Structure formats: structure tokens, C-alpha cells
């Protein structure tokens, strides 16, 4: 049995993400996490007040990973080409973690969590800086930025539902075409 001193919030979050990704969101329970970590359920409460707290931490961790990916991807990029590459990087990241992305995107009250909101705003800065290079109007930039995020999220949900199974047009070509339409504002 794992001792409390061998546990950490990071270990618990890692197990939670694996459970969600491999078995779906309903598999995320304190009992399931404790079983995977070979500890008592009560030990988890030292790190997380309740399941909602753990879910928020999983979301924050997911968004932080997206931010790190986009920050690394953005190096040396600018303009429309940069926005396209950032959108593709986020799409790929989310599709590789489809169940986890769906879980995070569907969390209730996520926008009310100050830390998740801070990370989300940091994620938005990168494409918005690139959009500034070719879209002068701030309202138009906001609309385009929202459209890009909605497209990425829609890709995750639509591919998960199997709605993009028609191979007459590849998913990548469809995504690129839709992204370019959004950017054409």
C-alpha cells in the first residue's frame, strides 16, 4: 500500500487523466484513482477537497500542456501561416487525447475557475498576436479567434461521434478549408 508521503497531486492527476483517456469520464472516481495508486481513498482528500476539485485540476493540467505545446510551436511563426500551424497543433494534441479533451471541454463552470481562465487567456495570446498582423479590428480578431477555437473543439467532438467518417474529403483538408474560411473573415 502506498503511503501518503509517496503520493502527490501530480501523481493523482496523472492517474485521473489515464482513467479518463482509457475508460472515459465515468471511470474517474476517488475509488478508482486510489485503486490505481494502491492507496486508501481517504488519502486523496489530503490533495483534493472533492471530485470537482480533482476535475478542475485535470482541466488546468490539460490547458497547461496545450499552452506549453503552442508556445513551443509558435517559435519563429507569424501571420496567417502561424495561426494555421497553431490550430493544427492544438487539433492534433486534442485528437490524440480525445476523451480527455472532451472531458475538459465539457466541464461545467470551467470559465469561473480563475486558474483555468488565466491559462486559457495565455493560450489565446499566441494566435491573437499573429491575427493582429492581418486583422486590424479588435472585434473581428475576437470573432476569428473564437471561430478557430470552436473549429478545433468541433473537430474533437465530431470525430469522436464518427461524423467525419466520410473519406471523400480528408479530415485534414476539411479542417484546413474551414480554417481558411474563418481566417478570410
Automatic annotation (TrEMBL):
Q: Which Pfam families match?
A: TetR_N (PF00440)
UniProt-listed Gene3D superfamilies: Homeodomain-like, Tetracycline Repressor, domain 2
Q: What is this protein called?
A: HTH tetR-type domain-containing protein
Q: Which residues bind DNA?
A: 29-48
What are the alphabetically sorted keywords of the record?
DNA-binding
* Tree of life domain: Bacteria
Record-linked PROSITE patterns:
HTH_TETR_2
Q: Where is the HTH tetR-type domain?
A: 6-66
The GO terms describing molecular function are:
DNA binding
